[in-house]
Batch of 2 targets.
Target 1
Amino acid sequence: MITTKKSDRNELSRLTGREVDIRTPRDLQGLIRCYGCGAWVKDMKGVPHKYIGAPMGCWEIYGEILAKEYGEYGYPQPTHRLTVDTYAVQHPGKPSRQAIQSVNVHLVRLYLVLKKGLSMKQATTAMGRVLRHSDKFAWLEPPLPNGHITVVDVIKAQNIEEHTKQVEAWAKDVWKAWAIHHEKISKLVKQYLGE
Ligand SMILES: [Zn+2]
């Protein structure tokens, strides 16, 4: 559904560098809604990733966020890993062996960190053990909407404190959106990790 929320207008103005009225088709030229996260992004040519389902315009904002994390924020943990997990889960792509594996293992790590309180290092080790059984993973139908917070919100952070807070909120929001599959993920963990 197209809304005329103030946050949407601000988002579109940021992308286009001009005042945008979402009810005016002319103003939406050059923009598309990301088919993963639902954010308004620039309509750019190309397919950025083999199995992560994101259009180039969304991928570009994700790249800006990663650049901030690698650069000025000094590779913050667990924030950086949460960013990677959340983005992958919010852009599940189409059912393929790699996409199925990606969504399952990134959901497993979100579960272990957000719900089981594991450190990122423990969660990553556990994720490796779960990954050995990736041939048994099934396609999980993505929720709609796939969360409400997106890269467009995260990129607005002005410093590492804001960024950390925003990434945590984003990860929790997307995890919550997948509620219908929470039981399957906790079963996977029980089955392969005995936890
Ligand atoms: Zn997106």
Target 2
Amino acid sequence: MIADRGAPLFDSGNTRDYNHATDSNYKKLRAEADALYDKRHKLSQQLQLAYKLGDGAKAHELSEKLKKILEQAEAKNRQAAEYVFRENNTDSAEDEIDLHGLYNSKYKLSNGYQIPVAGFGVYTVPEGETFELVYEALVQGYRHIDTAYFYKNEEETARAIHQFLKDNAHVKREDIWYTTKLMNTTNGYENTVKIVEETAAKVKKYIDYVDLYLIHSPKSDRETRLGTWKALQEYVGNPSNKTLNIHSIGVSNYGIKHLEELLNWDGLLVKPVINQLELHPWSPQLKLREYLVKHHILVEAYSPLTQGVKLNDPELLQLEHTYRIPKAEILLKWSYLQGFIVLAKTAKKERIAQNLNVLPKESNTQDALDVSSHLGKVDLDINILDALNKPDSHEICTWGGEDSTLYEDPK
Ligand SMILES: NC(=O)c1ccc[n+]([C@@H]2O[C@H](COP(=O)([O-])OP(=O)(O)OC[C@H]3O[C@@H](n4cnc5c(N)ncnc54)[C@H](OP(=O)(O)O)[C@@H]3O)[C@@H](O)[C@H]2O)c1
């Protein structure tokens, strides 16, 4: 099946409701785009065959044809997206900037804050190395860093941001996004207050406020989870009786039942804006993502490179061989094209730029709606998506292989 590349990007990247985009103009444009993608799919099979047979001339001819068809398909897709955008857009022009699929793109959260789409994760980055690595990530262009109490580098991360801001006066604190998470084994009201206070002591001197604080995992029980949320929401909005100002709060590894529990809770004052999940082609979490879109909760993809576990998967290696794109880039590209906020980690300085450069640095066009073509730095995206679109599955590479979204309370 040909991937529908327009809808997921817009739906998950922006909290607009496109459901009523069912009129005939929109449908016609999308059908025309789909027909072109179908045509392209067939041509790409021929191209693969030409590569296999070593027929360079034929491969060249086919790849030129493919390029043209992709351009036509994307133009149709763009017109369809533009049509829907105009129908639905009630926001200011500022939002249009956010639709660029560039490395410095931002997605708008349901509370109005804007989060950079490219995130740099620091899980397993040792103490003593985090400062330098985060500083380098900021130099390379990352504006979003993901840490956690558990990673033991909340403070170093904050210190690197502070130093970078000091050295680069044109970059403001509000340009950089700092996420941290609670200790994953200490949910509950009192524990949460304790951990947040510890975070405050470590980071406030450097970054003043925390952009996003997440519950790391639902593991505990209903009362404990809701106690955690009760404590977290007391820190939102800079209350004068609290030591830390947290702009947004969210969850991680939450399944539908945990979200239902929270969203239906009568003590809910601040809604979760994000669910951070293990997401990659072997764990696409389709049902859960559908639920999140419906509830305007954005999706952050952690372990988009599967912590390296699937980097030698035969299908992935075949794609790398066919398209001559490094496998890590293929996985990151897949993730961005799903519309996720992507958190990638590397402890190797030279890989920072490589991972970030999956998103282009400059736009060739002024068209803010041209998301798909900006995201596709190299051609043949649609085939990569197709090849990696798998049925819903939960092949978890973290947490000892356990899918925390399926966590059941102990009886
Ligand atoms: N909420 C949660 O429960 C949770 C769980 C896990 C992770 N996270 C967050 O998500 C972030 C990313 O996930 P992750 O750290 O688990 O794993 P990941 O980003 O999927 O994978 C990191 C692994 O990929 C390798 N790698 C990175 N870039 C590469 C490249 N260009 N080519 C080849 N290999 C490459 C890294 O090796 P090198 O370091 O040697 O480059 C490392 O072994 C974490 O740092 C953390 O912030 C959250």
